[in-house]
Inverse folding.
């Protein structure tokens, strides 16, 4: 009886402590995407300047697909120059940078593009279909799609120049 | 009167029970499905309850998919394929998820067991015959007790 009494406390407490330790170790805001390693969902993006581009047209090209919004401060403001720099550095090496503006006003989005002199295609997602199809739950989120059309990596939060360079080089 | 009330009660219960099987309207079905999905941009709100733009877009997509003849199971599977199981407010009843489903019942059973054990122990302790001789009575109370017993005896 006494041994049983001594054991009951660790038997009950240990699994609870282990569960808590596991819970504290994981980031509750980091939701792993089931899309990574799978084929990218098809999309057709009509850009603000009138052009249209889609996944099918871009087969054989590595794509950096960035979801952003003009109200997303500071993260989207921080990464915009890095995205533009990556586009300029890699556009002649088979890389396409695409911006998808979500839950935004067109005038504000255009002002954002103008402010950062973004020259890569940017377009709205008026019905939110593309963001839902990509499992987006916040901005900014960026998908790196390799030449075979498979999602190589998903990044949540602001991108840095080094991170962009590293992930693009992995896809080339 | 009692018979009528009983029949009404039976019809009501059977009606509520059969309602999902008989088929609900598109709006209601959209709302039912939206209530099962987690709003990605909110704190612990379902897509059905959230007023956010993203939840609105998700509800619209659910409605459209239902209109196109997709089953609720197919729609749930679509959202899980995009967001992972995280998107479901209630985890699927499979594998490790059973812990989340069964742990509360286990905790309740355990609590009931502990309370039962403690109560049984205290009851059996109070019922158990006292071992050894009684301690000597305080002389102050002894004389008072004798006086009162005498009084009662009369």
């Amino acid at each position: 009886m006494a041994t049983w009494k001594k054991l009951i406390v660790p038997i009950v407490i240990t699994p609870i402590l282990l569960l808590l330790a596991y819970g504290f170790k994981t980031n509750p805001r980091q939701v792993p995407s089931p899309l990574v390693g799978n084929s990218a969902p098809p999309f057709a993006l009509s850009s603000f300047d009138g052009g249209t581009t889609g996944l099918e047209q871009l087969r054989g090209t590595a794509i950096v697909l960035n979801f952003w919004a003009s109200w997303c401060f500071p993260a989207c403001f921080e990464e915009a120059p890095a995205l533009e720099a990556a586009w300029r550095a890699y556009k002649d090496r088979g890389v396409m940078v695409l911006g998808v503006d979500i839950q935004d006003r067109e005038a504000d989005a255009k002002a954002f593009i103008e402010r950062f002199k973004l020259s890569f295609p940017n377009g709205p997602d008026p019905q939110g279909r593309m963001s839902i199809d990509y499992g987006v739950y916040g901005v900014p989120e960026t998908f790196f799609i390799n030449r075979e059309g498979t999602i190589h990596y998903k990044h949540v939060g602001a991108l840095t120049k080094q991170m962009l360079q590293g992930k693009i080089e992995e896809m080339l | 009167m009692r018979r009528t009330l009983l029949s009404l009660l039976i019809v009501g219960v059977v009606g509520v029970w059969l309602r999902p099987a008989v088929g609900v309207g598109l709006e209601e079905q959209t709302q039912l499905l939206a209530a099962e999905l987690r709003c990605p941009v909110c704190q612990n709100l379902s897509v059905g309850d959230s007023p956010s733009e993203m939840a609105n877009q998700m509800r619209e997509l659910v409605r459209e998919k239902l209109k196109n003849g997709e089953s609720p199971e197919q729609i749930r599977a679509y959202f899980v394929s995009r967001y992972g199981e995280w998107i479901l407010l209630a985890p699927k009843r499979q594998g490790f998820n059973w812990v989340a489903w069964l742990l509360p019942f286990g905790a309740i059973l355990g609590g009931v067991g502990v309370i039962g054990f403690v109560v049984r122990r205290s009851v059996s302790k109070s019922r158990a015959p006292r071992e050894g001789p009684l301690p000597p009575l305080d002389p102050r109370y002894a004389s008072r007790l004798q006086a009162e017993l005498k009084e009662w005896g009369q």
Q: What stands out?
A: Chain B has a mean pLDDT of 84. Chain B is about 65% helix and 0% strand.
